Structure formats: C-alpha cells, structure tokens
Amino acid sequence: MGMTLAEKILSEHAGKRVHAGEIAVVNTDLAYAQDGTGPLAARKIQEMGFEKVFNPRKTIFFLDHASPSPKFELSNDHAFLRGFSERTGCRISTWDTESPIRLWLKRK
After folding, report:
1. What global pTM score does this model have?
2. Any domain includes 17
3. Which of 4, 10, 21, 72 is the most buried (most CB within 10 A)?
C-alpha cells in the first residue's frame, strides 16, 4: 500500500520508513512558537538551565496574535520574547517583518 503525504515527509526526515501510529524521531526544518505559548516555552527553556536552543537559526517566534499589542501583559510577553531571541539568536516574526518562510528560504 502507498504512503500518505505525511508518511512520506516524516520518513524522509526520519531517514527510514515510518507509518501512521508509529512514534518517529525526525529532523525538523523549522521550529515555530507564537506569542501565546512562546513565552511559556522560552521560560521553561531558561528554567531548565539552557542558555540557547538547539538550532537558533531554525527557531522562529511569531508575534502575531495582537501586534502591536493592546494589553500591557502581552506587551511584556513580546518584550520577553524579543530579549530571549536576541540572547539566543532565535528569529522574531511580526506583522511588519518578512515572512518566516521567506527568511528560511533565503538561507539557501
């Protein structure tokens, strides 16, 4: 039986054939987090004692739920993500920057 598109993509990134229902460890092209859960992830990374992410050039934080921010709490989260990204080399994508996909494609 043929493979689904997801199985083909995951198999290519896993370096072996994988099927639905299987747990697969794969190489990722990019890691994304948005301004809702991104601060939680970044704070957890810091709590665990890491000073950077595995591959900062492939890590992008989106500030897109409300940018510019209408609330000071969200503004604080945006500032935190900007600072975290500056310290770790991660990328930030906002409504006024280039698309993360275009940024990723430019690396080639």
Report:
1. 0.72
2. no
3. 10
